[in-house]
Design brief:
There is one protein chain. The chain is mainly alpha-helical. Helix content is 77%, strand content 0%. The protein has helices spanning 3-30, 36-57, 70-90, 95-101, 105-117, 123-140, 149-169, 177-199, 207-233, 236-239, 245-256, 264-297. The longest helix has 34 residues, at 264-297. The relative contact order is 0.21. The model has no long low-confidence stretch (mean pLDDT 83).
Length: 298
């Protein structure tokens, strides 16, 4: 990985986090009028309607059979489990609380990568990532619900999100990003539709819900695109700390949309998140520079 590609990966992760949180905000607003999985189903319809024309405009229509690639399907399956767990919790928890709980995803990714591909984590990097995790908890501070079934759903969402991103790393580079994204969107939509029809009392669809879902679908597509780019540009250990930007974006959403102002503890948590990410970026940069010097000297 080159320094420029690592920076591109970090930037893609930060942008993806913002897009996903904006999408979550639209969904939480829509859940004021409809049950959570119905909202997920409606968002899936909107996202697919955005994504399919994009595939055709970009000239990837002939690549549609690659929807059946095993890693594409594995990524989509993990996303189904992650997003179902997340939206049910999101309907009943503050967006900051559930976002903080899902910040365990980077730790799980690093552990998975270390176990599967034997990629070293390093004690210093691991300590810094844990500091970032502590910062995420300080920002949202899950209360008594942290031990509830809803909080458990948040941890399940984190686990399946880690599996999703590990599977996404194995998708062949010849498969267009929008194809893999469409597969995920379509399978989540189908699963949500079946679940909602079986277990929920579906609410009437209002004009407000349609507007929110059209926007949410657009944001979701590009969130998936940029998170794919993040893992293609940079190594997981480089961009994992910046996954904590989800919490920062969630706090921003809480301030703007829900009128929740962060207190001093939240500000300390945000500082820890930023500090840990920057520290790991600096350490990785120095290691790459040292490796290049050794290569030149050799």
């Amino acid at each position: 990985m080159t320094p420029s590609s690592s920076l591109a990966g970090i930037g893609s992760m930060i942008l993806a986090a913002g897009l996903f949180v904006a999408n979550d905000t639209c969904m939480k607003l829509a859940m004021e009028e409809a049950p959570p999985v119905q909202v997920l189903f409606l968002r899936g319809i909107a996202a697919c309607l955005w994504c399919l024309p994009l595939i055709l405009v970009m000239g990837h229509g002939r690549s549609l059979p690659q929807l059946l690639d095993k890693w594409v399907l594995m990524r989509a399956g993990a996303e189904v489990a992650a997003v179902l767990s997340f939206v049910v919790a999101l309907a009943h928890m503050a967006i900051g609380d559930i976002t903080a709980i899902t910040q365990t995803t980077p730790l799980l990714i690093l552990i998975g990568v270390a176990l599967i591909w034997r990629e070293p984590i390093g004690y210093v990097r691991l300590v810094l990532i844990v500091i970032g995790f502590v910062g995420a908890i300080l920002v949202a501070r899950p209360g008594s619900g942290a031990t509830s079934a809803l909080a458990l759903l948040g941890f399940l969402a984190a686990m399946f999100s880690a599996l999703r991103d590990i599977a996404g790393r194995n998708i062949h580079r010849d498969i267009p990003i929008v194809i893999a994204t469409f597969a995920t969107l379509a399978i989540v939509m189908i699963a949500a539709g079946l679940y909602s029809a079986a277990f929920e009392s579906m609410a009437p669809v209002t004009h407000r819900m349609i507007r929110l879902m059209v926007l949410a679908g657009f944001l979701l597509i590009f969130g998936h695109v940029f998170i794919f780019l993040a893992y293609r540009f940079a190594a997981p250990r480089t961009i994992a700390p910046f996954y904590y930007c989800f919490t920062v974006w969630a706090v921003v959403s809480g301030m703007i949309v829900f009128g929740e102002l962060p207190d001093i503890v939240s500000l300390i948590g945000m500082a820890l998140i930023v500090a840990s990410g920057l520290a790991i970026a600096i350490i990785d940069g120095r290691r790459r520079a040292a490796a290049r010097r050794l290569t030149r000297e050799a």
